[in-house]
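To: structure subgroup
Subject: Chain for Friday's discussion

All,

I'm putting the inputs and outputs inline so they're searchable in the archive.
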Amino acid sequence: MLRKKSIEALPSKAAGNAGIMLLLIVIFGIVLRLAFFSGIGTSDDLAYTSYAYSLIKGEIRQDTLSLSTRLGLIYPVSILYSILGVNDLSSVLFVLLAAIGNIILIFYFGKLLFSEKIGLMSAFLLSFFPLEVVYSTKLLSDLPSAFFMALGVYLFLYSEKKKPNSILYLFSGISIGIGYLIRESALLIALFFAFYILYKGQIKKQYFLVPLGVLSVLAIEAFVFYKLTG
């Protein structure tokens, strides 16, 4: 009886150990990114800070650059400016949080598709991957758009592999839509869904909730632009 109880306790113990390991990896990733903190440079990030600062002053910038339309990046930074003031940390905090989210998300991808061990290995490798470390503290659209795009794929695959859930399919599309608000190229993830459907050879009715989620975000964006510009 004792032996049976010990065996039953192993999964929960292993899950606890994996959680501790993931926490240590995340802390390591944060320390590494702060040690190599980049801050605002003279590239696109300077334009984003200017647009975000204009928002907290209540100004509407008339600009032809596509950077000014990336509401999913500009608005969060503007909110952080209003809370923490305008400085290097508040400028890149949203990107940094997304980068840490990528480490956690890749663990769950590995766990879902392979095993916890693969998930931990993936998270550890991403925690010190040079480009990830450098771009984690730059106000650029790459990392946050990648996070929301990947989150959308994860929610979709989780619902496919575990138990079909209409809410998860919808939120998958919404997450991808948010990724689009940050960087337009996020919509290219549609190629993944196209190949997935070809591979499976079937289309479930729940799949239509994914584009519905994306379209709901696009509708909100269109409404915001209409209110701003008429």
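Points worth raising on Friday:
The chain has ten helices and no strands.
The chain has a mean pLDDT of 91.

D.
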